Amino acid sequence: MKLLxxxxxxxxxxxxxxxxxxxxxxxxRDILKERGExxxxxxxxxxxxxxxxxxxxxxxxxxxxxxxxVNFMDNFYYGSITIGNPPQSFTVLFDTGSxxxxxxxxxxxxxxxENHPRYNPRQSSTFTTNRxxxxxxxxxxxxxxxxxxxxxxxxxxxxxxxxxxxSQNEPGTTFYYAKFDGILGLSYPALSxxxxxxxxxxxxxxxxxxxxxxxVYLGRQPNSQYGGEVTFGGIDxxxxxxxxxxxxxxxxxxxxxxxxxVLLNGQPIFCTQGCQAMVDTGTSxxxxxxxxxxxxxxxxxAYQNQYGEYTVNCNAVANLPSMTFVINGVDLxxxxxxxxxxxxxxxxxxxxxxxxxxxxxxxxxxxxxxxFLREFYSIYDRGNNRMGFAKAA
Length: 393
Hints:
By secondary structure, the protein is of the alpha+beta class. The protein contains nine helices and 26 strands. Residues 1-15 and 58-71 have low confidence and may be disordered.
């Protein structure tokens, strides 16, 4: 009888939500280091990790003149999806900082496309298109193509006639080396280029998930192929401990939330008058306003290496301060070991500067990327326009 009850519970749970396994691969940064090309690449590709949000600020001009996809050079969490009938397989980056799904197509002759699998609409019996073109800005450049409709399968959820982008031009060298083929955006429809329906909205509109919620767990073991999982349609209680801290989303556009402070070893140092943070799985590192970042690097004794990366003495890591982000009045703390990453014998500080103001012009602007999200299970509640955080298991 106990086995029967357990089996029924498992069946019910599988009907409630669907899990998309993530796996880890080398980042573009690591690949370029191995090839001895990183120093020159960084010298010729200056970028602001927040530049993908620059359309919110008409007067803002990014400095990354030639590399629209450079923002993704540190990402290494990917998942597999299929498109079409019969299905064609692709790896994608699940990005809460954008809304479109796009993949390389056979109509793209860019080197980046030729180095990845390309979708062939002629081989799918369910593909249709209205030939509407799209352009997605990543920094100051654009990825261009046209929209199509086909069956998209994500985490075992088959979405009929899901709209997606077929790239025809992918500029830049970053994406050439990327281990993922395309990007699957998980932000709000208002952000979607060309008004395309985002994948999660397609799931909700077709009643394919029981709850308008998805959640993200990122693995912390650097040498493990298991990268974590995205859960569609609910919350997996086995992936976190303690209570969930809920906070409202400031805009139905991005997963943008308010913060009340950033503490070092429990002492208020930054964001003392309040600030805002973007929760972005498409940003690998933590991002701080440039002035605050400079103060932080001085505080922890960091210096820049030959690549311009911030580095600390590995023997001093145990003495570095913890960092606390105050969200809805609750302290969410990450240890120094979370924001220090070992790479080729060096201890790198997993921070980058940004020069953008907060999207609603209310205080400094931070990005809580994968460094933070490895420590906290994140919940994206579209039904209530709120986010949840709990200590990752």
